[in-house]
Amino acid sequence: MRQTPLRNARRGVAFPTSSSSADALDVRGVFPAEIDARYAHRLGSAVARQAQRLDSRAVVVSRDGRSSSVELSAALQAGIRAGGVNVIDVGMAPTPLAQFAAVLHDVDVAVAVTGGQLPSTYNGFKLAFDGKPADAPTWRQLHDDFSLPEDDARTPGHRITMNVLQCYLTRVAADIRIKRPMKIAVDCGNGVCGAIATPFFDAIGCETVGLFTEVDGAFPNHLPDPCVPENLQDLVYCLRYSDCELGLAFDGDGSRLGVVTKSGRIVWPDRQLILFARDLLSRRPGAKIVYDVKSSRNVARDIAAHGGSAQMAASGRSEIRHAMAASDALLGGEMCGHLFFRERWYGFEDAFYAAARLLELVSQVDDASALLDALPQSCATPEIRLPGAEREKRALVARLQEQGTFQGAQSVVALDGLRVDYADGFGLARASRSGIGLVFRFEGDSESALARIQGQFRKQLLNVAPDLELPF
Prior knowledge:
CATH class of the largest domain: Alpha Beta
Distance between the termini: 21 Å
Radius of gyration: 22 Å
Structural class: alpha/beta
Number of domains: 4
CATH architecture of the largest domain: 3-Layer(aba) Sandwich
CATH superfamily of the largest domain: Alpha-D-Glucose-1,6-Bisphosphate, subunit A, domain 3
Shape: globular
Strand content: 15-25%
Number of helices: 14
Helix content: 25-40%
């Protein structure tokens, strides 16, 4: 599961230097074998140098609920301050609050100490510069800075602590209008989101039933990863046996949103994006909207049908954000749950704000689940994951791109892995950038079309890797 960082002097962990070799958004590794306090201090020193180039007033730092995050955050802040840069410490908080604090205080750099949805043995850092994930040139500069000797500034930076939750809640509540009272179930998977879930939904006028809202970095119930259907089953049961209208699930740092309806159906993020796109286009005809290669064909179709302009991008929050910036898109999203609003909000991924926008829309009807269940739906698989080593999985996808032959294909897109579109569906094989191995997704207009496309991919994959044990 490793998405590894800059070079660790002890273990030789490599830092991503381009978006082709990593997602250009996170530093992740096993604690303390790959990431420890010394590593965090050196990273802080590199971040301080970058902050000085941007003439940033300070660096905002947050941390998730893992036990190792306290030590790593302290060491990171010490490295930043030793470099002569001030720190605004927002404490234990979901990552969106760190990015909100950066906007609030006109700061160009924010770092969240978080392992996201990964198991408790992992930890890492999410870095944002000038409101966006680092691009490839920034990663290369950070890599170079990380390798330099640590230079203590003559005047160390100051550290202030700040609780930004109330400012965040006030800002969201001023933007969101819930049309009628709603009762919802919220599963935080014992991640840091549990610390703010109840006050957040109280602020916008919703009653909540909390599942696993106690922050526990050991994740004793299930991993906080709403991309995995098994992790949403507690919400399904809660909705079945309670009077809650809707279920919401959050990942380990508040970046990804999962949605379950009263009928027990999972509303995957690409279908959520359809609802958000319709709402946006009702006010901004012709608006540009970015979606990722894992998303349903229904996304582009529905956007076009409602007068919008749809643009496909590679998966990954950095890729979506940079595609949105390049095209001046107002909305973006990807299948794994990151959603980005540049209309009425600041453009960074924020699962709580996305949930609030969703509730605002569904509260306009009497039956929220019926509205969501009625969104365009084809026969489709969730993400199908096959663990594998970084180098091996990328080599396999490269061979598939070079040697694969797909009869009846209307288009073959190598934007991110290999996506093959047919008249009645699509198949995708890509190497995950978050360290989970190979990722597949399939969609068909019927069960038979879905089976045919999966069969064709299976055949081509086994042609290039006969010993591969496929999960489909």
